Amino acid sequence: MSPRPINEAFNSYYSNAPSTEYWATVFYKATSKVRRDKIWKTKAKSIHQTVKRFGNENYEVVDIGGGYGIFAEVMHSLFGKKTTVIEPGFHLANSCREKGINVIEKFLEGVKRSDLPQGCKIFVSFELFEHLHSPRIFLKQLFGLMQSGDLFVFTTLSGMGFDIQALWEDSKSVSPPHHLNFFNPYSVKILIEEIGFKVLEISTPGKLDIDILSNNRNLIKDRFLKTFVKYASDSGWSSHMMIVCQKP
Question: Which pLDDT tens digit goes with each residue over 207-230?
Fold first, then answer.
């Protein structure tokens, strides 16, 4: 998104906006059980398996933008893992505290190493990267907080995703000022490596894209795509990508 809001306005929005309070006090609370079963248990299992493949199983989790804290709860219930949540929004941070989750109520840019647990860590962030005011500043700060061998696993939108390419201006994913950044598997690798990370894996599961297109097929203008969406069951060219990287 260019031009984008100034950083002060951006931070104020995510800390104090009425919509932030609504998400924390109404939406997440009303949907927590369904989201726990349908989304977060799957993500927790995926993260745990990823760490087993690339890292040390004796790890603690740091969830950047951990929101309502469901992922932290699931990681503890399924795998006994402690999770520290970094969450700048007062209402969401308070929801985590009420659940007994360790919370750092700051934007990542304000976090210090002394705020974090010691030992092997895996940093995660889900659907946060597309919201960042400056992905480069975010990654530089994170790199400085991490110890050698720590992992960073994050999910974000890809502008090369099939549904975004097909729907374009009609795509609900293109919604500034909420979504400011659309990387892709090639560009995100360039940025991450420039910061100093070692990229271990970039995947585009493609499990949601066909559903998105199917639900919006009346907006698709291309005849071939209409036919493809009608019969296709999966796509490897997804707008939802997961990146696994490590601090050397």
Answer: 555 555 666 667 666 666 666 655
Q: What rounded mean pLDDT belongs to the chain?
A: 85
The span from the CA of 245 to the CA of 195, in Å, is 11
- Its CATH class, for the domain covering 7-159+175-207+237-246, is alpha beta
Strands (E), 65-204: 83-86, 102-104, 121-126, 151-157, 198-203
Which pTM value belongs to this model? 0.84
User: What is the arrangement of strands in the sheet containing 60-64, beginning at the earlier edge strand?
Assistant: 102-104, 83-86, 60-64, 121-126, 151-157, 240-246, 198-203
Task: State percent of the chain over pLDDT 70.
Answer: 86
Domain boundary assignment for the chain: 7-159+175-207+237-246
Q: In degrees, to the nearest 5, what angle opens at C-alpha 205 toward C-alphas 201 and 206?
A: 145
